[in-house]
Design brief:
This protein is of the alpha+beta class. Helices cover 25% and strands 26% of the residues. It is built from 6 helices and 14 strands. A hairpin with a 2-residue loop joins strand 8 (214-219) and strand 9 (222-227). Helix 2 (106-118) crosses helix 3.
Length: 333
C-alpha cells in the first residue's frame, strides 16, 4: 500500500504533535542569543575628571569618641623561664608532709623516677606512667612499710610534683623519718639524672601534663582566676609565689589568714609606679594607707576561685583586678 492510499486519519496525530512541539519552543522564555553580536554597537563610558586622584582601596574614617592616649598598648610581661638558678628540685612542706617540686615536665621526670625505684633494694610492685603512680614493696627484713610515689603535673607549665607516702592496708601512714630519708635520696637522684645533657622521655606519661589547671575567666561582672586544684595545693602555690615576688614597696605580701583563705597584699598598679632609674630612686613610694588589697581563695562548683577585694565583699577596681589576676595567671600557667 502506498502513502497516497493511506487514510488521512493516520496523518493527523503526528501533525498535531509536530505543531505542539513547534509552538512550545517558540513560547520558551529562553531566547536564542547566538546572533546578538551582529547588532552590537560601541558604547562610550566617560570616567570622572578626578579619577586619577581617587584611592584605589579607600578606608573609611572612623569616628573616635575616646581619648587617643588609650590607644597605647601595654608592654608585654616577660615569660617566666625555668632555669637552674631557681633550683631544679625543691622540697616543699605542707600539712600532709614534704614533697618535691621539679622544674621538668612529668614525661621527663617519669623515666628518672622509675630508674630510682629500680636502683633500690626493695622490689617494685607496680608502675603506671599514665596514672603517674609507682609502688614499692615492704621491706620484711627491716619491717619497713610499703611506699607509693605519686607524680603529677605542677601548677606551673613544665613542672612536676612528687609525693611519697608509706602505706599499709591501703591507707597512708603518718609522715615519718623513713619517708623523709627516702624523699631526700630521691631528690639527689633526680638532680643528678635530670641535669644530664640528654635523657629519655616517657610518651605514656605525657597524659599527665595535658590539663589546664589555671585559667582567667569572667563571672558576675568580675574577673576570677579559676584553679582546678586541691585547696592545700593552691594555697601553698600562691603563698610561695607571693612570698618570692612581692618583696618591694610596690608589691608586698603583708599577711595571710589560712582559715579565711585571704592573703593581704599591697599592690601599686603599673601606671602609678615611677618609670626610670632616678624616678624610682627618689620616689617616696606609696602612702602607707593606700593600695591595700586582699586575695580571697574560695571554693566554687568543685573548683577554686581567686578574687581581688579591697575588703570582704568589696571588689577591687576593675583595672587593678585585671592587671594583678592576669599577672598571677601568667606566673601559674
Amino acid at each position: 500500500m502506498t502513502l497516497a492510499k493511506l487514510p488521512l486519519r493516520l496523518f493527523i496525530p503526528p501533525l498535531l504533535l509536530l505543531v505542539g512541539l513547534t509552538a512550545g519552543c517558540s513560547s520558551s522564555e529562553y531566547r536564542d542569543r547566538n546572533s546578538d553580536y551582529h547588532q552590537a554597537h560601541q558604547v562610550k563610558n566617560d570616567l570622572p575628571a578626578n579619577y586619577s586622584e581617587h584611592d584605589v582601596m579607600p578606608i573609611a574614617e572612623a569616628n573616635r569618641s575616646f581619648n587617643e592616649s588609650q590607644l597605647k598598648a601595654p608592654r608585654p610581661e616577660s615569660l617566666r623561664v625555668m632555669n637552674e638558678t631557681e633550683g631544679l628540685v625543691t622540697e616543699r612542706v605542707d600539712e600532709q608532709g614534704a614533697w618535691l617540686l621539679v622544674m621538668r615536665s612529668p614525661s621527663e621526670v617519669w623515666t628518672s623516677l622509675r630508674a630510682f625505684a629500680e636502683s633500690l633494694d626493695v622490689a617494685m610492685v607496680s608502675a603506671s606512667p599514665r596514672r603517674g603512680e609507682l609502688t614499692l614493696a615492704a621491706d620484711s627484713e627491716s619491717r619497713l612499710p610499703a611506699q607509693r610515689m605519686d607524680l603529677r603535673q605542677g601548677v606551673r607549665r613544665g613542672t612536676s610534683e612528687i609525693r611519697l607516702n608509706s602505706y599499709e592496708a591501703g591507707r597512708n601512714l603518718p609522715w615519718s623519718d623513713y619517708d623523709r630519708s627516702r624523699l631526700k635520696s630521691l631528690a639527689e637522684f633526680l638532680i643528678a639524672s635530670l641535669s644530664e645533657g640528654s635523657h629519655s622521655v616517657s610518651l605514656q606519661a605525657q597524659s599527665l601534663q595535658d590539663n589546664q589547671l589555671v585559667r582567667l575567666t569572667d563571672r558576675d561582672d568580675r574577673q576570677v582566676l579559676v584553679m582546678q586544684l586541691e585547696y592545700e595545693r593552691a594555697w601553698a602555690e600562691l603563698v610561695n609565689l607571693l612570698d618570692d615576688k612581692f618583696t618591694d614597696d610596690w608589691q608586698m605580701l603583708e599577711d595571710i589568714n589560712r582559715s579565711e583563705g585571704r592573703l593581704y597584699i599591697r599592690y601599686v598598679p603599673q601606671d602609678l609606679r615611677p618609670s626610670g632609674f632616678f624616678a624610682r630612686l627618689f620616689s617616696r613610694g606609696p602612702k602607707p594607707e593606700e593600695h591595700h588589697y586582699q586575695l580571697y581563695l574560695t571554693e566554687y562548683s568543685q573548683e577554686l576561685d581567686l578574687v581581688l577585694d579591697i575588703s570582704p565583699n568589696q571588689a577591687a577596681p576593675s583595672a587593678v583586678e585585671s592587671e594583678l589576676l592576669t599577672w598571677l595567671e601568667r606566673q601559674l600557667r
